[in-house]
From TrEMBL:
Protein name in UniProt: 8-oxo-dGTP diphosphatase
Residues covered by the Nudix hydrolase domain: 14-140
InterPro entries (UniProt xref): NUDIX_hydrolase-like_dom_sf (IPR015797), NUDIX_hydrolase_dom (IPR000086)
Stored SUPFAM superfamilies: Nudix
Organism whose genome encodes this protein: Lachnobacterium bovis DSM 14045
Source superkingdom: Bacteria
Pfam families, A to Z: NUDIX
Amino acid sequence: MHKILGTKEDKEYKDRIGAYIIPVKGNEVGVVETPKGYFLLGGGLDADETDFQCIKRECLEESGYEVEIGGKVGSAETYMLHPTIGYFHPIQTYYVGKLLDKVKEPVEPDHIFKFVKVEDIENKMYLEMQRWAIEQAMAR
């Protein structure tokens, strides 16, 4: 399943392809809390990096955990005006999975990993597309 959000204006957008994991534990989902809000674990793909390589790297950086990546949930893209990037077009693929062992401390000091009840997440996700992905994962 693929979802398109936002309205594309006649502007030049910065595309960013990313991959994210939705760690589910009962009725809770693992997210990273930042000053902007909640985000899924993951991020933009580096050159020649696969989705799984990106997710594993980002999870270590953001949470310190190794992960087991499961099935694909879907993908989404949005057109938005970002406060620092400008016209931004993130294109993201989402997978369910689980956290394994914590092997190090996260390197991003303003990122706090936590499990949050799904009903407490809805209005706290920074990106609507990631909230949509969580809904898809929980409906499986």
